[in-house]
C-alpha cells in the first residue's frame, strides 16, 4: 500500500468509527517518522469557533516536534456515499507551509482520485518568496 493509500485508509477508518451514520469527515497527516496522525473537526455550536479537520493533526505534529510530509482531508455526505477529497483551505495551506513548500497535500479533482501535490504547486506565488 502506498503512503497516499495508507493516509486515505486511516481517514476512512476514523470516519467509520467516529461517525457511524450521517455526515463524516477526517484528516490524516503523515509525519517524517512515518507515523500517521488522524483528526476530526470539533463539534461547535457557533460557526465562528469551527476549525478544519486537519488542525488536530497539525497541532499533534508540533507537539511531537515532527515534520509533516503529507496531508489528506476527506468527507462523506452520509453512510454509503463515496468519500470525497478536500483540498486544504488557504489557512491550512499556510499552517502546513510551516514545514516548507514540499509538503504533499491531497487535492480535489473531478475524478475523486488520490492526487497529491506539493504545496508549492498550490501556491506558486507564495508571499514567502519575498524573503529569499
UniProtKB/TrEMBL annotation:
Key words, A-Z: Hydrolase
Coiled-coil positions: none
Source organism, top-level taxon: Bacteria
EC number(s) on file: 3.5.4.5
Keyword Hydrolase carried by entry: yes
Keyword Hydrolase applies: yes
GO molecular-function term, one example from the UniProt record: cytidine deaminase activity
Name assigned to this protein: Cytidine deaminase
Organism, as annotated: Limimaricola cinnabarinus
